[in-house]
Amino acid sequence: MSKQKKLTLLAGSALVLATLAAGAANAQVCKNNVKVLSQPRDGITLLEKYKDEFKSLSGASFEIDNLNEGDRRAKSRADASTVGKYNVYYVDEANVALFAKSKWIEPLLKHYPKDYDFSDFDAGRQKVATYEGTQWFAPITGGGDMLVYRKDLLEKAGVKPPKTLEEFVAAVKKLHDPANGVYGVALRGQRGSGSNVWRWMPYFKGNGGQWFNGNKPAFNSDAALKATDTYLDLFKYSAPGTKTGSWDESTGAFLAGKVALLIESTPLTGMALDPKVSQVIGKVAFLPPPAPLTGGGYGHGFAIGSKANKTEEAKNCAGLFVAWATSKKNEERRLAEGQFGELNRTSVFNSPEFSKRYGPDLGKALSETGKVTAVNFWQDAQWPDLGDRWGIILEELITGTRSDVKGSLAELDKFAVDLVAKRK
Questions:
Q1: How many CB atoms lie within 10 A of CB 247?
Q2: pLDDT at 424
Q3: Residues 243 and 151 in one domain
Q4: What backbone phi and psi angles, to 5 degrees, belong to 345?
């Protein structure tokens, strides 16, 4: 045997040994199956097909318990605060502050393998996953806001796509043509922190509004007054049924071809291009929200539980599952399945496969809107109480059962003072 051939064989053997050693090391990451409390999502169901892949990677498998959103929130709170059965919790923007502040979950990046590239997640998703400067979960779904508009209607009317709020309001008024079944805009009027308040908040934050200064309410301000006046004025041009409607009524009117412009959460963009639900295929275009509006950032994802993961090894195992479940590879699988609402990575948005499925402009628009996406809500465990109270008041202003905006904000201010006082 020649010297060169011997060297080649030795090199090959070394490579095999190195590969086996790496596999053995990976196989020791998890000693036990990862127990996950989640809620049904297509992208999470898809993970079940690849259990063997995770077992090969980590040395163990995983078990997912799925509950509907309300039950999932209740059970995760009860479990995380007591026995801690689950290694990984599905959390969302409404409860991440409570879980982080209560130390029920671990800082994610301490146990998230760097090779999985957390920085590749959309900038807006990263903001929502952050509380007090620390990232707590890896996104499974989420988004911000995007301006979705009927380019055919704008072109016909000679209206340029609006890039500022003033241009947006002017375009809404000009394109409002109810006699011909077209409405300038579609808003959400139904009460709720995730309904009318969610759509109102970009106007509030865009005008410089803040919810609190420390523990003192700060929202009863010129910013809130201006935001409310603008929102109420736009309702004069909103599609029928939206004064007490929410996501379904707003997006449904647009997808039916009845609305010229709409600022809504990013899942609408995928729906607008889906022939199964959209009547405006080929007639829509996308932009970030008009300045100075902020995008309404939201996100759901996987977090590492504290009680069930008593050792660093267990935390690293849970971190590996979170990273694998939300990896670029699994996002590419979700893209191939057409699961638009569960795509979160800029590398996927900018990929040729995404462009082929959704067109060349949407990926760019999603990346741009991520830059102006913000956490508009009060990041606090008591946010749902405050947000829902404002939702009731705001709906009454929208429907005309009350008219005093200043008095309404003062009423909410008193409610907030009492709310904060209760936890002292």
A1: 17
A2: 63
A3: yes
A4: -105, 135
pTM, to two decimals? 0.85
Q: Are residues 128 and 240 in the same domain?
A: no
pLDDT of residue 19: 37
Average pLDDT on 241-258 reads 96
Beta carbons within 8 Å of 188's beta carbon, 6+ residues apart? 195, 196, 198, 199, 242, 245, 246, 247, 249, 250
Residue 90 has pLDDT above 90, yes or no: yes
Nearest to 146 by CA among 292, 354, 286, 346: 286
pLDDT at 387 over 50: yes
Per-residue pLDDT tens digits for 8-20: 444 444 433 333 3
**Domain range enclosing 406:** 145-296+378-422
Structural domain contains residue 272: yes
Residue type, 54: F
**What are the backbone angles phi and psi of residue 336, rounded to the nearest 5°?**
-65, -30
User: How much is the pLDDT for 64?
Assistant: 98
- The first and second tokens of residue 227, run together, are 């935001």
pLDDT digits (tens, 9 = 90+) for 311-346: 999 999 999 999 999 999 999 999 999 999 999 999
pLDDT at 382 over 60: yes
**Phi, psi (rounded to 5 degrees) for 307:** -70, -40
Is there a contact between 396 and 171 (Cβ–Cβ < 8 Å)? no
Asked if 197 and 335 sit in the same domain, the reply is no
Cβ atoms of 59 and 34 closer than 8 Å: no
Phi, psi dihedrals of residue 338, rounded to the nearest 5°: 75, 30
Q: What are phi and psi of 179, to 5 degrees?
A: -60, -25
Mean pLDDT for the chain?
A: 92
